[in-house]
Design brief:
It is a single chain. The protein folds into 2 domains: 49 residues; 125 residues, 2-Layer Sandwich (Cell Division Protein Zipa, Chain: A), CATH 3.30.1400.10. α4 packs antiparallel against α5. Helices cover 46% and strands 14% of the residues. By secondary structure, the chain is of the alpha+beta class. The strands form 2 sheets. Strands 3-4-5-7-1-8 form a 6-stranded antiparallel sheet, with helices on one face. The chain has a two-stranded antiparallel ribbon with strand order 2-6.
Amino acid sequence: METDQTTLRIVLATLGVLLLLGVYVWNRLKRQRRRLDKTLRRLEAESEAEDLEVQEIDTISIHPVEEIAPVDVDVLEAEEATLEPEPAELKPHPAEPPAQAAPAKVPTLPEVIQVSVVAPPERPFLGGELLKAFADLGLQYGEMEIFHAYEDDEIQFSVANLVKPGTFPIDAMDEFKTRGLALFFQPAQVSRPLEAFERMIAACHALAQRLGGNELDDRRQPLTAVKISLWRRQLKDA
């Protein structure tokens, strides 16, 4: 009796294990089937999209090309042989107009020639040292509240403050400081432009050396001998 109960327990335990194993296998197959179905649906969607793109490309024709039948070379040569060459039509050459000399360019004076002396970033020019340098160069304070170089009563060139409004406070030069000076003259307003130019360039060199500044041209580039020669040539040719 006791043996039968033990056998029954073993049979029931075995059936329980088989049942759990069957449930596990069924769930696993079910998950695999879902993943497979999802993959198949994605592949079908991609396939349909590719088919649609191909159809759209096939139905669009921007420049349709007609089929050209192959040419029979023998027939083409035979037809060309039967044609008589047409006489070439002689056309008179039009007479060429006489060459005209290009009008010579009339040299003109620059409206303004300007150079600058710029202070180092860490040390602006002080009003007191400017007054001494201007006096040594013979510059006088005058019209427009700036300094000028005179020849008799004619202004040869002028020196302005590089910072707006461009003037010098003559009564407060001890407290004045600036980042630079602008030297300029108008060639058409002086009787001897080349001499005025040479005097201005000499003053520019002297101020730069005395104040420790950098010389710049009218485009705020370093003033070079080439630029000076170009201006000098323009003044000579005008």
